Amino acid sequence: MTRIGPTDPTALIDTLRRVGRAVTVGSQDTQAAKAGEPGLREMLANLVAESELDSEPAMDQLRQRMLRVILLREWGDSAATDPAFPGMIDSVDATIRGDERLRQLFRDAVRRLKEPPR
Amino acid sequence: MLDTPTPTITDDDRPALWQRWRGERDALARDALAMRYAPWARRIARDVFMRCRGRSSDWPDYVQNASIGLLEALANFDDRRGVPFEAFARLRVRGAVFNGLRDLNGGHGQRAPATEERVDSLLDGDSSDPVDAFIAAVSGLATGHLLGSLAELEAPQALPTPYEEAVRSQVAETLAIHMERLPAREREILTLHYLHFLPFNQVAHAMEVTPSRISQLHRQGLARLRSFMLERHLERDF
Question: Taking a C-beta distance cutoff of 8 angstroms, is the pair A29, A41 a contact?
């Protein structure tokens, strides 16, 4: 349990942020479950399961598909027809390709998504 | 053209802000003044840009240098001399833009690698789950890209054609509206960084906090924008 001191607003903000994030992600999946749709994590796991991951181009393709799924899930399906959407996907993908830490995070995420649900 | 999501200058609150900044050295009042005068400094950058027939690709440097000039003027202004702030600051802002232009033409005007500090900030989160961390990073990078596109729309040589007006990004416009809902400090940091092209260390200097605090507030601001966007999307669909 995180203890929050009375004079430590930073800790309070961080704790609220963590709670907020948990609520946000949780509510997103709860809403999806109510509607009978898979949650974002499940969608990503399905993408990983159906992808061949034996080559660099295959991983590149998977990453781009994952970016699309994540951003449409967060911003709504109508974002797919937004003029900014393709450029945004390209920009995020280029940033990930250009940063080893983000590439590693992507590989770690894929590895985790391949594990059976706990 | 999209308006910069900063408060408009009103004569109502500026005297009170000046009083708080001068009398009490209230940093929040100084930051609020910077936000109120930022569109004015941007107009000076635009004047110099048009006069010098600058390249579109250099527009961020013009805005960045005007913003630096503005922040320096705010720090040094003393109204007891009886000179209005705009008159005092105009020469400094223009001077900062011209100085930057000289550096740019001399090949010394390389901007700090903004992408790297954004990634540093986003990866500094507390999630131990790589899937959650990846999703948050992707969302933060995409939001940053859209904020940057708002600034690009304001470049003088990138005035939108009627076609571009028609196909303007609804997502970016929604984001601009949500910027107004952010807490003041987060909004100011995102505005100075993405719309005025200031690197984190200069934002930190202007706000008199550490760069790591700026990085933390940057991550927090993007996360909050993310939750606003998600909330809107869920409200619409359910």
Answer: yes
